Amino acid sequence: MTHRLVVLGAGYAGLAAAHRAARRLRGADVRITLVNATDRFVERVRLHQLAAGQTLRDLPLRKWVAGAGIDLVVARVTAVDAEARTVRLDAAPHSLSYDTLVYALGSGADDNRVPGVAEHAFTAADADGATRLRAHLATVRSGGVVAVAGGGLTGIEVAAEVAESRPGLRVELYTDGRVGGWLSDRAQQHIRRAFDRLDVRVHEGVRITEVGDRALLLDDGRDREVDALVWSAGFRVPDLAGAAGLAVDGRGRMVVDGTLRSVSHPEVYGVGDAAAALTPAGAESRMSCQVGLPAGLYVADAIASVLSGQQPKPIRVRYFWQNVSLGRRDGVTQFTRADDSPVDRVVTGRTSARFKELITRGTVMTMGNPGPYLPQRRQPTLVGA
């Protein structure tokens, strides 16, 4: 009987998992189906560029999966029935049954935390949001105020990109902590110098309590008129896993074991932002393509091992660096320990910008060519199919 492997989500983790599984299970009686809401791969690490008015590469998924042994279904997932082992979709074929499921639906902007954000703010967490922001920024006249909420990676990159591409706008960044506070002092200092150069005004230790139509209410009682607010203060994951009865943590992320299998439903694997994988130190893995891509490759290998009657070794989540864009000609590359804590070594300026561009382009190449791997000495014999 054909084993049905369904992968939900064609982001960095899901697409890598589907392609790697197709290679590892070639010749086995396995049907691989990849489900995604759109027919394009989105370079999420470039969405700040799209929002600022730049044109991104067109990356059609059908071209990537053609001849790879992967069936592509373009539809939005509306529900997972973990007991019946089916996935419901908003378009044909409307329902898919699975024997093994890879849950890689990613994350989106957390726009429910503060009143008015969902109604009045823009986001750059997905292609649709970045496109809407781009269209709105094109209508803002010189001297208009663009506020960015959040001092994390997305907020920093959006603020710098908009300020560089639209120097006539007044860009302001609001954060209740420190801008880039997770980075080393050297990295934070470079970001501050870049913001000074780009004339980005930073408001630290300030919390936005409510958002209105072209207005912000701050926790000190002040009102601030703006022409656009970009909300980048946190992410949230879809509630599909929890609604299906899968074990999730307090943020709705699927709880997985060391091989990325659901602790409550072992036929389901979780990768990327939607899963709470742990580092060797016991901390939650960071939401990033730096984790999603290798997790996708790993989970395909793990599934191939299980279907061959073998026990995969636990994944080891470790970090090397973090890249922060500061426009097209500047950036910060923060080198880290394996647990993601920063060391004092950083690379800045054009060298960092070029390095990130090299990594980003290499990541896209890996999506469609997820080797090398150690082939099985024999064709996989499916266990429990």
TrEMBL record:
The family this protein is said to belong to: Belongs to the NADH dehydrogenase family.
GO molecular function: NAD(P)H dehydrogenase (quinone) activity
InterPro entries: FAD/NAD-bd_sf (IPR036188), FAD/NAD-binding_dom (IPR023753), NADH-Q_oxidoreductase (IPR051169)
Keyword Flavoprotein carried by entry: yes
Claim: Membrane is one of the keywords in the record: no
GO biological process: aerobic electron transport chain
The FAD/NAD(P)-binding domain, residue ranges: 4-283
Name under which the protein is recorded: NADH dehydrogenase, FAD-containing subunit
Cofactor requirements of the protein: FAD
Keywords: FAD, Flavoprotein, Oxidoreductase
